[in-house]
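Slack export, channel: ligand-projects

TW: morning all. Re-posting the request from yesterday since it got buried. We need the structure predicted with the small molecule present, not the apo form. The ligand is pyridoxal-5'-phosphate; the SMILES is in the block with the sequence. No rush, but it would help planning for next week.
GE: picking it up
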Amino acid sequence: MLLQLEGAVAEGARHVERPVAELEAAIPEGDHDFRFRHDLAVEVGDALVGECGFGGGGHRRHLLAMDRTTVGIAGMRCKQDAGRRRRTGPALARDPTPDAAAYRRNEDPMPTAPYMYLDGSIVPYADAKVHAFSGVVKYGCGVFEGLRAYRSASGNLLLFRLAEHIDRLRFGMKAMRYERILPHDEIEEAVVSMLRANDLREDTHVRVIAYLGGDDPLHQTGPVGLIAGALPRPSRGVGGGLHATVSSWRRIADSALPPRVKCTGNYVNNRTAEIEAVQDGYDAVLMMTADGKLAEGSGACLVLVRDGRLVTPDVGSDILEGITRDTILRLGADITDRPVAERRVDRTELFAAEEAFLCGSGQEVTPILSVDRLPVGSGEPGPVTLALQERYFAIVRGEIPEYAAWLTPVWED
Ligand SMILES: Cc1ncc(COP(=O)(O)O)c(C=O)c1O
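GE: finished. pasting the full token output, ligand included:
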């Protein structure tokens, strides 16, 4: 029994869970390399429709229909990418780590998508490994990026400001004196091919890490490797909000561990502050510089609204020069009709501000509702923050053509 899948799935179909082993057992032996990506299937009448990856390297969605006795491929839209590597390794859904059903249901905490990019190959999540004595493990000398891709109205997946993230990653490799700075195109190809391998069209977070492998002394500068993976994760959307605290831990200084470099080792500082805040019952943490001015959050930049004007710690305040911060600086002046102030910011300005928010690729634009149990402004998301959120989410989903240059579509259709 063959089904016209996309249509049939839409009408009267319901999702059912079947163990992957059962789904795979239904596939007859043959000259194919099908793998179920997760243990969800769709039941239509007597038929099960499983969604599977196609092992030959095509990166489209392929669906397999079966009535438990007959198996056939229906709705096959296989576009084989000639010359791409054939995937090898264990069936994806049998890999130990991704909780495939939770991944499919978009549950929190969501695991990383089943395929990752590692040094020129697409590999199953479980095989994305570096040596235990590599430079990145021993000395924390990786550099990384976190960015997001958003589903557009037409069903494409749009990477937001990929070029700027790649530029910052390459700056990090330079600052860390890597012997080889990976070319821009190679990094872009890694990200896009990884997303295609995972057949992703939903909102997702993407992590890219350039690292030092080998087993060399502290001053090693190579060999240089590249990793990319995706964590499917819905956008936080408009509204919401966080209760924050100011950490007792100070932000690392440019003169010691430069926060401008998004280096893996730096995040011991962010992690220390975030753990303290979370264990004390807060949602988010703000860090101050060694001389007591506000710097940033553990994974996002800080912006205040004072007298209707956006104010943010300047780039000399031991912050990561955030790409979302740059986006907000560009949008903010239009929304407030006032130039944005980049300057040193005092801690007590948090209590004087009408509004405050965190901004970052992962954090997006998220209101801060209180700091150390004192409300920020009214204690609700304020009008400037809400207006910025509306505009930000319209831009990232490709709804404002003026900003199309910030978007990299993953799919050709
Ligand atoms: C410490 C820190 N600050 C700020 C940001 C925000 O940067 P971006 O907007 O480029 O994601 C991040 C996120 O990567 C971060 O880790």
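GE: first-pass observations. Residues 242-256+278-396 form a domain with the D-amino Acid Aminotransferase; Chain A, domain 2 fold (CATH 3.20.10.10). The two ends are 29 Å apart (CA to CA).
TW: perfect, thank you
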